[in-house]
């Protein structure tokens, strides 16, 4: 079956994280769920130091004190 959304034994029952939208070039995309999140995301790294004394700057041995 090629359809955007179809229901069996119910109508308009959808979970908030379920992808939904049209099929092919209908003008609607899959705008919900993990697939959409992955499509519009970029992986980044964030490091947060929680120690009371800061570490050396970039590992070159210079203290920030």
TrEMBL record:
Pfam families: Aldedh (PF00171). Residues 1-46 form the Aldehyde dehydrogenase domain. It comes from the Bacteria. Gene3D superfamilies: Aldehyde Dehydrogenase, Chain A, domain 2 (3.40.309.10). GO terms for molecular function: oxidoreductase activity, acting on the aldehyde or oxo group of donors, NAD or NADP as acceptor. This is Aldehyde dehydrogenase protein.
